[in-house]
Write a structure and sequence with these properties.
Elements lengths: L1 E2 L6 E2 L14 H4 L88 E2 L6 E2 L19 H6 L8 E3 L6 E3 L16
Antiparallel strand pairs: 1-2, 3-4, 5-6
Amino acid sequence: MIICPVCDHVQPEGTECDVCGKRFPAAALAATPPVARLPELELTPHTGGRDAVDAPLLPELDGTRLRSGPDLPAQVVQDLELTRSAPTGEMPVAMLQELDTGRAQDDGVRTAAPVGAVVCRYCRNVQAVGLLCDNCGMRLPRARLAATAVAAKGQQDDDEWMACPSCHTRGRRGRACSECGTRLQEQA
């Protein structure tokens, strides 16, 4: 496995990183040399992991391992009913007079929705069309036009065109949306 030193992407083979395009040095691509065994190490063959191991219990040690079940049987608490609580009856609910909801009076002024070219908040790329940034792929803060505004622009809806239910981009029925990939189908 090759690990890219720039983006830490792991890939099995190749001369450059599949993610960032960093070219790997030739030394990293060379095959690893064979490893020689050390003569002073003892070989302990192990076949299949099921060999019997002779391990007698030591009498001077306490056995702290629990058995398969708990030591005491489960006991029922007689006074506790887990399925129902006592009825509380009707309780008066009074609003707290000193509680501030934190909402100011509505003045009717609304912030205009961003239209036209927008700036990506992640990579600062300026882009005029699309809901996803062409540079980094993040979602752009773009306003979706209402159906009345689209009709006012003079666009006619043909039978084969429709708005995507996820991102409201126009696309052909029966195909995937060009922006988000959602299948464009008639909703029943």
